[in-house]
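Hi, here's the filled form for the chain we discussed.

Project: internal
Contact: R.S.
Residues: 443
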Amino acid sequence: MIENNEKKITLSVSVTKFKSKPEDWKALTYKRQTITIEELVNRIYEGHCICQNFHTKSEMFGLSEKTIANFDFADCVILDIDDTFLSMNDFYLSLKDEHKPTIIYTTYSNVDNVNNRFRLIYVFDKSISSNDFYRSIANAITYNIQKEIKGFDLKDKTCLNVSQQFAGNGNENIVYYYNDNIFTPTDFGIDENFFSNSGSILEREKKNNIQSYLESKVKDTEFLKDFWSTSYKRNEEEFIRKYANVYPFLEATPLPETDADTPYILLPENYVKIERYWYKEPQTKGDGEIVYKSHAVKLKSGHRRKLLYDGCLLRKIMLPDITVEHLLYCLVCERRYYVDNQDKVITNKILYQIAKDAWNDTKRSIKPKKEEKQFVVNSKYCEKYGISKQAARNIAAKMLLDLQLKQLYDTKLSIKENLESLKNQGIKIGKSSLYNWVKSKKI
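And the returned structure, exactly as it came back:
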């Protein structure tokens, strides 16, 4: 690591700046800029979004050209830190000086000691010219952090790829630090000579047959053997049970572990789930009482393949390092429980083709439905304290609102002005409720 206050880096900066997190990422347009570290901090503070550099048709480009296939180079590595147990300040102080990121700043969603969300930017002395090498450096940085901060885990692994884009923070509550730290790969235990070889590695990859490359990724030969010997509705349940603990059936982004004394589990910022539709079937019990049993609406002929394929793309967002086997296992579960396959059209061959194509697809993007919930109830809390989920939900909502108000309430403003400010930041609270909160806190 060296210090250089004159270092300039090139990256793509959004034309538009935002005071809150962008709702429509597809509408963003970017343009390359070569700027100093201080100028990059200013862009972030102004609310601009940033991403890496890509081969594009014109100076201005959007989401469709921001792909791994179009990647040109990166002068920095950017990591998202979500829902960690340390505030940004404590996290920064816990790192050795020679490993402190060049820039660190809180994101729009950050609430100190509630979800602790911030972003790290490591500026490098030489450009990174391949996605594989970018991932290697990002993983090495993560491993280095884990050695210095025990218990740390990078929950949002989508940032390991060069195609990600990152919001700045135009909110006045932003907290940031920056320094003159400029890194080399060797600072994180990576052979710097890889830079000179990255071009030839890319060329060799281009020459490789994609199918052969994909097959080489399928390491679990026993799994594949069992898969091909499983017929529709014959031994499917046995197959699903056998591999349930190896390849969990993903229906939503995995949630962080939470202790039994916390009534809520905060949903990750990148949380997505597979949408299901349900209907209630009335059933009459022996005493004549009518009860309702919920059933999932199964996918019908005509759009099954597309929805199964889209489900695989969503699972790649849920778990960026997902394997072909894991996708394939999820597809078997989908066919078993959520697909109307009486015509037996969705065969093992079809499932394998869907898993293979989706796993290898780097061009098509899918926009998941935005999750409006901030949290889910922690069942461990309900079990420990013997209360219902609804009661725990009410306790959690009150706790989170209290924490948010402590973080965002401005004592220099009137209650009316605070109401407007909170509303603009997505906090829903009535005037009388806010007045009672202010009174209870003796503000």
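Let me know if anything looks off before we file it.
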